[in-house]
Structures
1.
Amino acid sequence: MFMKKIIFSSPFHGKRYLRLPEIRKNLLFIFFVLTLFAGITVGALCGRAADKQLMENLDIIFLTNFKVRCSQGILDSFVASFASAFIFILVIFLLGLSVWGGFIAAAVPFIKGYGYGLATGYLYSTYGLTGILYNLLIILPGAFLCSAVIAAAAQEAFRNSIKIISVFRKTAVSDDPHIQMKKYLLSMLWLLFLSAVSSAVDMLFSLMFSWLFSF
């Protein structure tokens, strides 16, 4: 899985994954990453016109209530971050269980990126340099890992939907559907674990730097 290579590959062997065959092999993952960046761009533009009430209303999904994030405890920070990631992973997982859901799952990275972009645009337009520093020190590290996990999950859901479609072909299916489903479940569990890691990173950076900010 391309996601595993990104996280666990040694930086001294990074060129191995920049070869053209590897890029072609992971075009689907790259597509979902680009979709996520498109969401960030749109969200950042919309965030400039967002108000405090909107950001508080979207906090459950996107963690945009910065006043709460600066005052909550370590465990609360982890639970809130993981709950947000879990919602996205669960939605993607369920979409990947249907013949059409994988295509809709392509929109989830965009939504995730939109939430991050919305927070970034709001922080910049409302708090200026302070908002930028808050984004770099607290939001970005965990959000970067979580976004990569969401993109990888969308890729897995899309591929599983394609495999489900292949079951309805008249020609014989080469892979056992039960084995395919088992692989899909294990992949999503692995990505759920990685989302927990991203939440731990989010908690760690929040613990180290949140005391510097007050909104």
2.
Amino acid sequence: MRKRFGDKEVECRNCHKKVKPLIKLNRAKSDFIGGRYTGTDKKYWLICPYCKSVIGAK
């Protein structure tokens, strides 16, 4: 599986480096309760590649 990176450089709050964040799918969806997930409202996390902390959501 190939890693996906964001297109904008963002400063990480923890390590204070200018990075292009990793984009990962948010598997913990708060609005999914029972039934099947349709996939229409996917949310992604922006993760710092150095300290692995969550920078934001997309």
3.
Amino acid sequence: MVDEERLVMTGVQVEFDRRAGRWVAACDDPGGEERLVVNAETLERAERLLDERWRARLELLDHEGEEDR
């Protein structure tokens, strides 16, 4: 089981895309794949969506690890 409390989101970037009029938040994928990227209308929503996506990815990796055992 992956201990989420000890894992830290890395490579975090949050910026406003003026062309799209949206916030873009990104971080490194905890599984070493492509970066995780989300878009939202507000900064708070972009940060929350990125956190949710990161945690969901951790859960998936944990589930896949359990299946391999």
